[in-house]
# Entry
Amino acid sequence: MGDHDIRTPPSPQSITSSSAASSSACTILSSHQSMPSARRTSRSHKPKLSLSGEVQSNIEDVRGQVDSLSKGINYVYSVKVVHSEYKITKVNSHPQKVKIDFQRKQAKLKCNKAAIIHQRVQESKSLEIQLFEAQAKAHLEKRAMLELKIELLKLKESLPSCSSPA
# Structure
């Protein structure tokens, strides 16, 4: 039998018919064995039942026992069916659980990769901002230097004009 082969329990009707035959035979034998003592007591206390009355009484007793056994067998059968269905569901759900676990691990890896990429992009942008700030500072210093050069040139132009009249 393979891993996925699951036997179904026999139907309650087949169990009931075989159980009923053995049960009725046992009941009839036991009632016949206990009859002589029952006849002795029935003579003293109860009026004697006719043979057909005794047979009818025994038949009703057997039917009651068969009904009781049938109900018990039906209950056991239904419990076994539910248990089998549970096992089948458990076996069928295992691949889905494995698939979901795999997908969860893949999603976690993807999330971790995305977090690393995001962190690297943030670091890159931060470095770009620092570069632009340094360039802006250099431009400001260059501007200040050019303004000073202009001022110096203006001063140089004004100085020779002051020195030539003298």
Q: What stands out?
A: The radius of gyration is 52 Å.
